[in-house]
Design goal:
115 residues; binds protoporphyrin IX containing FE; mainly alpha
Length: 115
């Protein structure tokens, strides 16, 4: 599974596709887009965990926080779509999803990356 840990490209591809599917699903709810998005949640997690195994000892805590932020982003995206489907207010979770997403991306690029 070297291709998952030699660069961050596969990980980046999975969350960019997930983001596009999320934006489509927020604008126009669709069960099939939501199902596709859930598949990409799993791919983000697999590629993220693979990269996590490569962390260097100087940045252990930051890698842990990066993982948590990534998982929280996914959780808030899912909550936004489920609340929308149920007709509940979703402005707060949607705003939260974007804030945590931005923090995740900033921390992701701030980490040293694959040498
Ligand atoms: C929507 C969710 C996520 C987003 C937007 C995201 C975003 C990013 C970004 C922008 C990078 C930096 C890529 C680079 O430096 O080339 C990255 C790297 C990484 N991500 Fe994620 N990620 C997400 C979810 C996750 C999850 C769930 C995990 C863990 C299970 C994870 C673990 C990692 C690790 C370990 C790295 C490598 C950091 C490094 O060495 O630079 N990510 N991610």
């Amino acid at each position: 599974m070297d291709f998952l840990t030699q660069s961050t490209h596969v990980h980046i591809t999975t969350w960019v596709i997930a983001l596009v599917l999320f934006l489509i699903a927020v604008r126009k709810p669709s069960t099939s887009v939501h199902m596709g998005l859930r598949l990409f949640y799993v791919l983000i997690l697999i590629t993220g965990f693979a990269l996590f195994t490569t962390f260097d000892s100087l940045n252990q805590a930051l890698y842990g926080i990066k993982m948590l932020l990534g998982i929280v982003t996914i959780g808030l995206m899912e909550m936004t779509l489920v609340r929308k489907k149920k007709g509940k207010k979703n402005g707060g979770v949607l705003a939260g999803a974007f804030i945590v997403l931005v923090l995740t991306v900033i921390l992701g690029f701030a980490l040293p990356g694959i040498a």
